[in-house]
């Protein structure tokens, strides 16, 4: 973020969180490693980038955070349960700062 800060004069107007991955299979067949991978890619990365960007967004007068999510985070879609859980987290993560 220090590099971003220096490139943009210490301010950031928008952050777009666009990471996402998943496995199309029943929840019971998702391995612990796959679960960690899905959650770290979809949730942890969004959390950490948003947290790091917050001071720069605040200094620009508020800025905006756009989280690319999925309807799988709202709807129950067969074989997308863990992906849907992760994207559901994204729906709520940056609603309240």
Automatic annotation (TrEMBL):
Record's keyword annotation contains Oxidoreductase: yes
Stretches that traverse the bilayer: none
Record keywords, A-Z: NADP, Oxidoreductase
UniProt GO MF annotations: oxidoreductase activity
UniProt key word Kinase: no
InterPro entries: NAD(P)-bd_dom_sf, SDR_fam, TR
One family name in Pfam for this protein: adh_short
SUPFAM superfamilies assigned: NAD(P)-binding Rossmann-fold domains
Designated name of the protein: Uncharacterized protein
Taxonomic lineage of the native organism: Eukaryota, Viridiplantae, Streptophyta, Embryophyta, Tracheophyta
């Amino acid at each position: 973020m220090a590099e971003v800060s220096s490139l943009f004069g210490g301010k950031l107007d928008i952050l777009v969180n666009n990471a996402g991955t998943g496995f199309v299979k029943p929840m019971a067949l998702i391995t612990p490693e796959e679960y960690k991978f899905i959650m770290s890619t979809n949730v942890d990365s969004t959390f950490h980038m948003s947290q790091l960007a917050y001071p720069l967004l605040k200094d620009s007068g508020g800025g905006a955070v756009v989280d690319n999510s999925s309807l799988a985070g709202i709807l129950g879609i067969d074989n997308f349960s863990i992906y849907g859980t992760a994207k559901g987290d994204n729906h709520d993560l940056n609603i309240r700062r």
